[in-house]
Amino acid sequence: MKKTILTGIRPTGNLHLGHYFGATKSWVKLQDEYECFFEVADVQALTDNFNNPEKIRKNVYELTIDLLSVGIDPHKAHLFIQSKIPEIAELTIFYSNLVTMARLYRNPTVKTEIAQKKTLFGNDGESVTYGFVGYPISQAADITALGGTIVPVGEDQLPLIEQCREIVRKFNTIYGVTLQEPEYLLSKTPRIKGLDGKDKMGKSLGNALYLNDDSETVTKKIMNAITDPNKIKKDDPANPEICMVYYYHQLIENPNLETVYTECKAGSRGCVACKKELITKIEQFLTPIRQKRKYYEDHQDEVINILNQGTEEARIRAQETMKQVKASMKIDY
């Protein structure tokens, strides 16, 4: 039997290049090797968007179309909606008894995201909800409900997987061996930088290039991308290592990369010409994705059917897990 991959993404907006190169590009390959369940994590998205449910509902379908457009194949993998698997919510409640608040606050990923919220919204953290702090418990429920044996993650997500493993160990110690500790599959791609040079491309940072951006938007964003600040005139030599335009030439594997590098260093390549070449390459990269997206936008019923079928498969898995969990907990009345 194939091992089971469980991973997901929150529907808070469309996919950008950071999502693609950091995660979904590898998901497309993994679906040929494993039984894959890809979760549209709407419940987790509500932890910090609880007052804007319309946004999440709309983005469930937008995100699904993005995933299908980049190559997730519903004949190979299961796409499902988190909120339609009530067993995940049940498991979250059971697991919440096994984790202290102190342990949650010590989770490095949680600490980092709370600090980011303070920076973004200028508050002291008092508005952070229990649901937000407790999302590692919900994530552990996601993984174990579906019997996830392998979870693809970036390095910043490793503390969440370790917390899931702790929960599984504690459950098995108290109630008897029932659940399997998941392994992680670490992404080989480092965090993708934003167009502004920041270490992370993010929706809230305004520095992302989205897979559904039209040609005009792509051109505008790339023409505003950060280059070497020490290059003042067109013929000045520059350092491509600190230039976001060169960074994206590398990211999309421009076959002309060596020429871009040497001409930039020598001062024989202007930034405008370099940006225009990058625009051409990005457009070539995005064209097949746009074509698939157009198909699914015109066939919304097919998208809904894909989600319904994937959710049904996920629910069957979760129901079987819950039978075993309740039997072990002596609550299988």
Question: Your description of this structure?
Answer:
The protein is mainly alpha-helical. The protein has helices at about 15-30, 40-45, 55-70, 85-95, 100-105, 110-120, 130-135, 135-145, 160-175, 215-225, 245-250, 255-265, 270-300, 300-330; strands at about 5-10, 35-40, 75-80, 150-155, 185. α4 runs parallel beside α14. The longest helix is centred in the last third of the chain and has 29 residues, at about 300-330.
How is the secondary structure organized here?
Elements (H helix, E strand, L loop, with lengths): L3 E6 L7 H14 L4 E6 L1 H4 L7 H18 L6 E5 L4 H11 L4 H6 L1 H14 L8 H4 L1 H11 L4 E4 L4 H18 L7 E4 L28 H9 L20 H8 L5 H10 L4 H28 L1 H29 L5
Parallel strand pairs: 1-2, 2-3, 4-5
Helix pairs in contact: 3-13, 4-8, 4-14, 8-9, 10-13, 11-13
Distance between the termini: 32 Å
Helix fraction bin: 55-70%
Please report the total strand number as a whole number.
Answer: 5
- The unreliable regions are none
Give me some keywords for this one:
single chain, 333 residues, mainly alpha, two-stranded parallel sheet, 14 helices, 5 strands
